[in-house]
Amino acid sequence: MQAGKILVIVGAVIIVIGLVVWLAGDKFSWFGNLPGDIRVERKNMRFYAPITSMILLSILLSLLLWVIRKFF
């Protein structure tokens, strides 16, 4: 019973995130192009490691989860 409720909430959150990215995707064009994101392009190879972007995302998600746990 509890697992079903959690799955529905996680699904709703994913839908909301998808809608935000779909409707305001052009506003986040800076994300993935931050200083510290590694991009190597050669003639026959492409490598991309968004290190800074993932650190920023991790900090934001950690803060969000901390706030949610504080209230619930």
Question: How would you portray this structure in words?
Answer:
With about 70 residues, the chain is mostly helical. The protein folds into two domains: about 1-30; about 30-70. Helix content is about 60%, strand content about 10%. It has helices at about 1-25, 50-70; strands at about 40, 45-50. The chain has a two-stranded antiparallel sheet with strand order 1-2. Strand 1 and strand 2 form a beta hairpin. The protein is elongated and about 55 Å long.
Provide tags for this entry.
72 residues, 2 domains, 2 strands, mainly alpha, two-stranded antiparallel ribbon
Any low-confidence stretches, pLDDT <50, length ≥5?
A: none
Domains, number: 2
Q: How many β strands by DSSP?
A: 2
Number of helices: 2
What is the compact description of this entry?
This protein is mainly α and 72 residues long. It has two helices and two strands.
Chart the SSEs and their pairings:
Blueprint: H1 2-24, E1 38-41, E2 46-49, H2 51-71
Antiparallel strand pairs: 1-2
